[in-house]
Design brief:
There is one protein chain. The chain has 333 residues and is mainly beta. The protein has three domains: 120 residues, Immunoglobulins (Immunoglobulin-like), CATH 2.60.40; 95 residues, Immunoglobulins (Immunoglobulin-like, Sandwich), CATH 2.60.40; 92 residues, Immunoglobulin-like (Sandwich). It is built from one helix and 23 strands. The strands form five sheets. Strands 1, 3, 5, 7, 8, 10, 12 and 13 form an eight-stranded mixed β-sheet that branches. A four-stranded mixed β-sheet has the order 9-15-14-11, with no helix packed on it. Strand 7 and strand 8 form a beta hairpin.
Length: 333
């Protein structure tokens, strides 16, 4: 082999080895992500389009994010947690800036980790932002409440694409607790404006909800317009904390704790009881939305675990329970 060819072969082989080592060094980080590519699809201008890339620390050492950046201003990236302990999960949030861009837009999000080892993971996000449909506001956020029966939200869909017969022909959703009505408010010179009115049904279960409505149009090229809806349904009655872990108590030791009771509406505490005679709650007086209930715990004379359930009822019929745990230690001889 000619000496020059031999040298070239050695250099090329060395570069291949380095590339393989680099890919191996990055693998521990990429393995944490279930997926690294997301398509936002086709969305209206000014609509909210957010996606969360989930990742999980699979290792014993802490995982620490050093930085995060996007290759395009059409995507604003952020993270929910910078340091993850073993088996903890986090998210990289990709916000599609539909208020500032139109057309086909894509970006590469580079997440740089500094611990336990240096690595970079690249995430892809893409989509199409329509310039002919503008949504205001960008989503329907119902906020937090124990009941949404009297709450109505609306948004405006403004079509500017020039089709004189353009219309919304249907609204679909997989979420069973939503009702929608449409009102066409303007149609002239290729511009059509709708008001979309939305209400949530009273039987909405407690918890955080995020779903999509799909506005179906007669546009053969862009039939669907997604609309994001979010709501946080609260319990009618909340107790804080939901449980007490008192740890070790000496026989006969007495300790007082407080339960904070929050109600969606002003109420009275009709009763506060416990299924253990060594646990004595005191009813809070007055009609108000927040009550502070003192609870006296007295350790029994026998060593061993101690449990109880405190049950609180309001004048409106709402009920919540608080679990109590303690361990009574052996007395001194």
């Amino acid at each position: 082999m000619h000496p020059a060819w031999r040298l070239g072969f050695v250099i090329a082989f060395g570069l291949m080895v380095l590339a393989a080592d680099d890919a191996s060094a990055q693998k521990w980080a990429t393995d944490m992500f279930a997926e690294r590519d997301h398509d936002f699809g086709t969305v209206a201008k000014n609509s909210e389009a957010i996606y969360e890339f989930q990742f999980k620390n699979l290792y014993q050492e802490d995982v620490v994010i050093r930085s995060i950046r996007s290759s395009c201003g059409c995507i604003s990236p952020s993270y929910t947690k910078q340091r993850l302990k073993s088996l903890e999960t986090g998210t990289i949030v990709a916000k599609y800036n539909t208020d500032k861009f139109v057309g086909n837009r894509s970006a590469t999000i580079t997440v740089t980790f500094e611990k336990p080892y240096y690595a970079e993971v690249q995430l892809k996000a893409s989509g199409v932002i329509r310039g002919d449909v503008v949504m205001e506001p960008g989503k329907l956020d119902f906020g937090s409440a124990s009941s949404f029966s009297e709450v109505r939200k609306s948004l405006v869909v403004d079509y500017r694409g020039g089709l004189s017969n353009w219309k919304i022909v249907d609204v679909t959703s997989t979420f069973p607790h939503v009702r929608v009505s449409l009102q066409e408010t303007q149609r002239q010179r290729g511009r059509v404006i709708y008001t979309v009115n939305v209400r949530l049904l009273p039987e909405l279960t407690a918890g955080r909800h995020q779903t999509e409505l799909m506005l179906v149009t007669n546009d053969p090229n862009n039939r669907e317009i997604p609309v994001t809806i979010s709501a946080h349904a609260l319990e009618a009655l909340q107790v804080i904390p939901s449980q007490f872990d008192l740890g070790d108590l000496a026989p006969g030791q007495q300790i007082t704790k407080h339960i904070l009771v929050r109600s969606a509406e002003d109420c009275q505490i009709s009763s506060a009881t416990a299924d253990n005679p060594n646990v004595v709650p005191t009813v809070s007086a007055g009609t108000k939305s927040m009550h502070k209930i003192p609870v006296i715990f007295t350790a029994g004379s026998s060593a061993g675990p101690m449990t109880a359930t405190v049950t609180i009822k309001t004048s409106q019929g709402a009920t919540q329970s608080v679990a109590v745990r303690a361990n009574v230690t052996a007395g001194s001889e």
